[in-house]
Write a structure and sequence with these properties.
5 strands; single chain; flat; alpha+beta; two-stranded parallel sheet
Amino acid sequence: FDLFEYARHFLHCCSRLLGLEHRSRRGLIGVDFNGRRVNVRCGLIGFDVTRTRELRDSQEVVQLKKQIANKFEGKTVIVSCDKIDRLSGTSLKLTAFESLMKFSTSLWYGKLVMVQLLRFPYTTYAAT
């Protein structure tokens, strides 16, 4: 979870909905369910703001932005950058986009573009 508050909410839901008690074991907090231990981890997602601005303003990115703007002129563009990871949620995002296009065809058909960028885990965006 990104925030401890989200983890706490998840554990509270496990307690209320499933009757599970969470406890700390060897420095990890989690629940036991059907003979398996499910640990909860919190990890803040931080990024270097200065480096991000430098990349945004770099000649390469400015040129790429112009190319995308020209290619998709008059359309709404959704750009997403994710790492290739089964837990990243990319498949859910693509399913949601598919549903949006299926059920809102008259509103978005031909007007909406999704650009999905994927990177390998443990690499920076600048390296890909």
